[in-house]
Amino acid sequence: RKECCTTGAFKDRVVVEKLVCQAIVGVKEPERMQRQKVVIDVTMYLDTSCCSLMDNLEKTISYATVAREVLKYTEESKHFLLETLCHGIARMLCLKYGAPECTVRVEKPRAIPLADQAVVEITRTREFFTEE
User: Fold this and answer.
1) Which residue of 8, 73, 79, 123 pairs with 47 in a disulfide if CB–CB is 3.0 to 4.6 A?
2) pLDDT in tens, 111-131
3) Contact at 8 Å (CB) between 30 and 64?
4) Residue 11 catalytic?
5) Can you list the pairs that 105-109 forms with residues at least 24 positions away whose Cβ atoms lie under 8 Å?
6) Catalytic residue among 11, 37, 59, 108
């Protein structure tokens, strides 16, 4: 886990939006057999004041690294629920990357007839996962 600016009064956001992944997610047999498109947004809340003053990537959470890791996790996972996928991503952001708090949103296009997509969005703190 990289050192990041996690103390301080600021609640800044580092965001990765509309990360397109292929995942095994769902309860029906066809969903378990073939990967489907999911679109993921992650928001990490942290104090970026020290890294911005120092202009130092090592003092923050790299959004490029996070995007690669979220993609890898999602494409290797096999969950029944979008909620479980969100939980796994949030856990990684908080414990591996040190985000004090994060929001994860997963969209599954065409999951429901007559709707554009199904969406699950969760917000978790690092403390939530350290108490597991």
Assistant:
1) 8
2) 999 999 999 999 999 999 987
3) no
4) no
5) 105/40, 105/41, 105/42, 106/38, 106/39, 106/40, 106/82, 107/38, 107/39, 107/40, 108/25, 108/26, 108/36, 108/37, 108/38, 108/82, 109/37, 109/39
6) 108
Residue 54 tokens read as 């120092």
Question: What percent helix, strand, coil does the chain show, rounded to 5?
Answer: 35, 35, 30
Q: Does pTM top 0.85 for this prediction?
A: yes
pLDDT band at 37 (very low <50, low <70, confident <90, very high): very high
**Which parts of 47-125 are beta strand (E)?**
78-79, 101-109, 117-125
CA dihedral for 60, 61, 63, 68, sign (positive or negative): positive
**CA angle at residue 51 from 47 to 53, to 5 degrees?**
105
Please count the residues of the chain: 132
